[in-house]
């Protein structure tokens, strides 16, 4: 019963509509009516700019960290590593489900990548750092948040299965499922990337202007 209660709390934490709160409180708009219609950090970057996109991303990551840390309210899991890992995965996935289908926002949410990262950060920080490294590198090179998220998600099973060679079966299965989930939720982005029409986020504008000047563009 206690486990079900904390999992329900994790879902409610994941349901906190970060992007909707920012867009309505500061801009008096519903972020879902603009851009891709998605209530996540990527669309916030695209519609509201890098400052508020970064705020929303941080809030969504924090949701995953807090939700995954709820196991600390159950003393049994403090000394049982296997049970703790399993519960953290359950809590994290409940938070991700809440982000994708938020009860506080009529079940129209985001894609859950930032919240997933928060869960991995709580579960194993080293793996999370390797994933965020891939995310930041791809974002710097391309300015596509969607592509950065996809490749960071693919990095998760690579890290878990081969680089760190984790032996816990559920953790290995979870890593593969996460990569599959991110690919599934980003199908439209993948299509736009292949067609060359995916929107870039408004960061590194000074770099782009310098390049344009060197090419003699207005």
Can you describe this structure?
The structure is a single chain. Helices cover 71% and strands 0% of the residues. The chain is globular and about 50 Å long. The mean pLDDT is 88. The protein has one domain (2-214). By secondary structure, the protein is mainly alpha-helical.
Question: What descriptors fit this protein?
Answer:
218 residues; mainly alpha; 11 helices; 0% strand
Task: Break the fold down into its secondary structure elements and pairings.
Blueprint: H1 2-14, H2 18-27, H3 41-48, H4 50-68, H5 81-100, H6 113-123, H7 125-142, H8 145-163, H9 169-185, H10 187-195, H11 205-214
Helix pairs in contact: 1-4, 1-5, 3-4, 4-5, 4-6, 5-6, 6-7, 7-8, 8-9
What's a quick, concise take on this entry?
The protein is 71% helix and 0% strand.
Residue windows where pLDDT falls under 50 for at least 5 positions: none
Radius of gyration: 18 Å
Number of domains: 1
Distance from N terminus to C terminus (CA atoms, Å) equals 64 Å
Largest beta-sheet characterization: none
Shape: globular
Into which percentage range does the β-strand content fall?
Answer: under 5%
Count of helical stretches? 11
Helix content: over 70%
What is the N-to-C order of secondary-structure elements (H for helix, E for strand)? HHHHHHHHHHH
Q: Give the class from helix and strand content and strand pairing.
A: mainly alpha
The overall average pLDDT, rounded, is 88
Q: Using DSSP, what is the number of strands? A: 0
């Amino acid at each position: 019963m206690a486990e079900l209660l904390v999992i329900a709390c994790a879902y409610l934490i994941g349901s906190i509509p970060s992007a909707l709160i920012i867009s309505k409180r500061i801009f008096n708009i519903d972020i879902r009516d603009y851009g891709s219609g998605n209530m996540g950090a990527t669309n916030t970057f695209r519609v509201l700019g890098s400052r508020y996109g970064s705020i929303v991303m941080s809030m969504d990551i924090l949701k995953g960290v807090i939700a995954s840390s709820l196991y600390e309210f159950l003393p049994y899991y403090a000394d049982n590593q296997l049970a703790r890992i399993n519960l953290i995965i359950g809590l994290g996935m409940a938070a991700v489900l809440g982000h994708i289908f938020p009860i506080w926002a009529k079940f129209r949410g985001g894609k859950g990548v930032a919240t997933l990262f928060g869960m991995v950060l709580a579960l194993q920080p080293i793996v999370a750092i390797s994933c965020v490294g891939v995310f930041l590198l791809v974002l710097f090179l391309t300015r596509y948040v969607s592509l950065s998220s996809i490749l960071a998600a693919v990095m998760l099973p690579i890290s878990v299965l081969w680089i760190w060679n984790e032996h816990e079966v559920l953790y290995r299965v979870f890593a593969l499922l996460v990569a599959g989930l991110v690919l599934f939720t980003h199908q439209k982005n993948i299509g736009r990337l292949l067609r060359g029409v995916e929107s870039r986020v408004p960061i590194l504008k000074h770099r782009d202007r310098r390049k344009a000047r060197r090419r003699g563009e207005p």
